[in-house]
UniProtKB/TrEMBL annotation:
<feature type="compositionally biased region" description="Acidic residues">
    <location>
        <begin position="123"/>
        <end position="134"/>
    </location>
</feature>
<dbReference type="InterPro" id="IPR036806">
    <property type="entry name" value="YozE_SAM-like_sf"/>
</dbReference>
<feature type="compositionally biased region" description="Acidic residues">
    <location>
        <begin position="96"/>
        <end position="110"/>
    </location>
</feature>
<feature type="region of interest" description="Disordered">
    <location>
        <begin position="95"/>
        <end position="134"/>
    </location>
</feature>
<protein>
    <submittedName>
        <fullName>Uncharacterized protein</fullName>
    </submittedName>
</protein>
Length: 134
């Protein structure tokens, strides 16, 4: 699915995803669910991935998230490092196929507080590597 970008390109993943809220499409479904999820408090791909891990969504939701994250970083003109960071988030969070449709529980895999400053996993999930257009 190729996302249609509005004339004024949003700057954060949250604002980019907002343009799809209420639309009858996979991105629209993702946006509606994301904005209804009280666990999603950030503005980044990483923060939505963390919220989704807590909710254990179905495979289709993960597949749409994966497509949306890639479309977002591409539309923002992300660097190779930013694209690699998004791919790392996808690899760690998204299930590979429908047989494992709950995603990866990051707390189980990496310990309860895997995302603290100085964590060995900090580089994998560094939201600062996403484009920050001010």
């Amino acid at each position: 699915m190729v996302a249609q970008i509005t004339k004024t390109t949003p700057k954060t993943f949250r604002s980019w995803l907002r343009q799809f809220k209420g639309k009858d499409s996979p991105y629209g479904d993702l946006a509606t669910d994301a904005f209804d999820d009280s666990n999603w408090t950030g503005n980044t791909v990483k923060s939505l991935a963390i919220a989704m891990v807590m909710g254990h969504p179905c495979y289709e939701a993960w597949a749409t998230f994966r497509d949306a994250a890639r479309a977002y970083i591409t539309s923002m003109g992300g660097t190779n490092r930013q694209k690699a960071n998004i791919e790392e988030i996808i690899a760690r969070c998204c299930p590979d196929d429908e047989s494992n449709d709950s995603g990866v529980d990051l707390d189980d895999e990496m310990g309860e507080h895997w995302d603290y400053p100085g964590s060995p996993y900090e580089d994998y999930f560094d939201g600062d590597d996403e484009p920050a257009y001010d």
